[in-house]
Design goal:
Strand order of the largest sheet: 6-3-4-5-7
Strand content: 15-25%
Structural class: alpha+beta
Distance between the termini: 23 Å
Number of helices: 5
Radius of gyration: 18 Å
Order of helices and strands: HHEEEHEEHEEH
Shape: globular
Largest sheet: 5 strands, antiparallel
Helix content: 10-25%
Number of strands: 7
């Protein structure tokens, strides 16, 4: 059953990500750290991010019905896009369409279009979003802003709309690059799991 394989692969990836997150969090100095802190202790989130790994883990579909946990190279977001550190991603039935190859996709492809996380890098020209801001990424991957539908305010029917987890990689990963026009602000009082 495809859904079961997706869930099992995600559980493995989540367990590994939780171990990594735990190590990262335990590396943070306490709020009341004294100036005599040991050498090498982190002093800011920016310093942590600058020392972060150059790779990330993802669960990708490599062919119809085939999933694998892989390590990918961390890249900067292109113009008009944001890089997001994924905190949670929902599992939707349409993700099985990606895994089974029912959509016109290029392999390998990372499924997942119900992702929530924090922006950790912005591509050139992105306005209105900030590093550290919590955002969600849905199925609609972002409108182009210039087709006839977009000019008429009908962003949902954008002729150049890409779909998260189909034309570009989704949220079954530690990192996701998404078009800025497809982001949704997530309030701090809503947990990432609940939002996803």
């Amino acid at each position: 059953d495809v859904a079961r394989r997706v869930i099992d692969a995600l559980k493995i990836a989540l367990r590994r990500a939780q171990r990594t997150t735990h190590l990262l969090i335990t590396s943070l100095p306490s709020r009341d750290a004294s100036p005599a802190e040991p050498a090498g202790a982190f002093t800011s989130i920016e310093e942590i991010m600058s020392q972060a790994k150059t790779t990330y883990r993802a669960v990708e579909a490599t062919g119809p019905g085939k999933l694998r946990l892989t390590e990918r190279t961390l890249v900067d977001p292109p113009a008009g896009h944001a890089r997001i550190r994924v905190e949670a991603c929902g599992v939707c039935h349409s993700d099985s369409g990606t895994v089974d190859g029912l959509f016109p996709i290029q392999w390998p492809r990372v499924p997942g279009h119900e992702a929530v996380g924090r922006i950790d890098a912005l591509g050139a020209g992105v306005e209105g979003w900030a590093i550290g801001q919590r955002v969600g990424v849905g199925f609609l991957g972002g409108s182009c802003g210039h087709c006839q539908f977009c000019r008429n305010g009908d962003l949902v029917n954008c002729q150049n709309q890409e779909y998260t987890g189909i034309q570009h990689d989704g949220g079954y990963a530690e990192v996701l690059i998404a078009k800025a026009s497809g982001l949704i602000a997530v309030p701090d009082d809503l947990s990432s799991v609940a939002a996803a």
